[in-house]
Amino acid sequence: MFCLLLPAVARADDGSGPQIDAGATAWMLTSTALVLLMTPGLAMFYGGLVRTKNVVGTMMHSFGAMAIIGVIWVVVGYSLAFGHNVLHGWIGWDPGNLFLGSAEDAKFPINGGHQYIPELVFAMFQGSLRLSPRP
Known about the structure:
Elements: H1 2-10, H2 22-36, H3 38-48, H4 55-82, E1 84-86, E2 91-93, E3 107-110, E4 115-118, H5 119-131
Antiparallel strand pairs: 1-2, 3-4
Helix pairs in contact: 2-5, 3-4, 4-5
């Protein structure tokens, strides 16, 4: 997953516009990796709560949920979570964010808009939080 983001992170800016904060971007990528490590940890924890014959099945439920939710997040989840307000703030929607389409070259503001991180990094971090299975 990180290999997909390297061209977007490593691209040089020409200085005309908001600058990407390299430190914040590195921290977001590190945080994403740490959150993704929670899924196998929770799978092992859930495996310890069941009988021996059900351990593999219980762990596969966690990994199966990770695969399904990951695809749903990329296709429509980000658009629903971070789109423009629809229905008086009940849900968001931005058709440009379907399949993370408009997030490729976008920059997400942090620290009150003084610094920026690539929006794909932000989407990946938020998606990793959605992937950790909960009972």
